[in-house]
Amino acid sequence: MHTSRRKFIKSSALIATGAALFPRNLFASSKKLEHLGLQLYTVRDAMHADAAGTLKKLGEAGFNHLEHAGYANRMFYGMTIKEIKQILDDNHLSMDSGHVVLSQKHWDAAKNDFTDEWKYTVEDAAKVGQRYLISPGLDGELKNDLDAFKHFMDVFNKCGELCQKSNIQFGYHNHDFEFTTMFGDKRLYDVMLENTDPKLVTQQLDIGNMYPTGAMPIDYITKYPGRFELMHVKDQIKKPDGKYENTLLGKGILPLKDILKAGAKTGGTTQFIIEQEEYQGMDPVVCSKLDLQVMYKWGY
């Protein structure tokens, strides 16, 4: 992790071979980016209609790494681990991270242990090849009870320990309420960062979700250096009615180049994951390809 990419490439024939999968200018830079991927929620309708066909299109578009948002009943988008791994392999794809909400129902206080359901979630994440298991949400009542929230942050830390036994890093993905919900004079997100162990719980900073709340990504990256191993890369436009929505990268109002630079330099970010949720009438798969090309153009 701390070895420079230039030295690492020179000393490793394996990495030199794998470099063909990445844009050339990535390795010429000082960035420590490991993975540039896509959150499959971007193409959610297509995934649920034809997962195999959609994954094939994403591979053809140039993606190598994906993040899922479709795990339930020990299946991924309705497929067994064996089935989805075969499709990923056929299209030279990996699913390095995934979203599954860790809820209070997954912690058995009487046994001081996680439920079998959550243990299976971690087990399946490892089997499908994930390096990160990300929880993208909280139970509603935790937003109104500071003591209960802090107690659940202890569960977060315990989940980090559980995941590390399977060589997985546990993390949390923000929406907007983390910055609008206050515990006294502190935002919920700050309380979360102050009550979780950075070695056990990393953060996936969704810069698009936080921006409309007035919380600035670079401010958090600066305040909590090294805490944001993953980042959801989004851009936003502001509509005439004052509401925000996602758009193609580089077409909105976020200072994306500055944020990405700060993430890589200060935030500890090694996983940049593209996500777009609104498309202004365009096809989501096409948007994904265009977003990837923009990231390549910017040197990622």
Give the structure's gist in a few sentences.
42% of the residues lie in helices and 19% in strands.
> Could you report the average pLDDT, rounded to the nearest whole number?
91
**Beta-strand content:** 15-25%
Amino- and carboxy-terminal Cα gap? 18 Å
Count of individual helical segments? 14
Main β-sheet, spatial strand arrangement: 1-2-5-8-9-12-13-16
Q: What share of residues is helical?
A: 40-55%
**Can you summarize the main beta sheet?**
8 strands, parallel, barrel
Please identify, by name, the CATH architecture.
Alpha-Beta Barrel
CATH topology group: TIM Barrel
Using the CA coordinates, give the radius of gyration.
Answer: 19 Å
Return the structural class.
alpha/beta
Order of helices and strands: HHHEHHEEEHEEEHEHEHEEHEHHEEEHEH
Instruction: Give the C-level CATH assignment.
Output: Alpha Beta
Q: Per the principal axes of the C-alpha atoms, what is the gross shape?
A: globular
Number of domains: 1
CATH superfamily: Divalent-metal-dependent TIM barrel enzymes
Total beta strands: 16
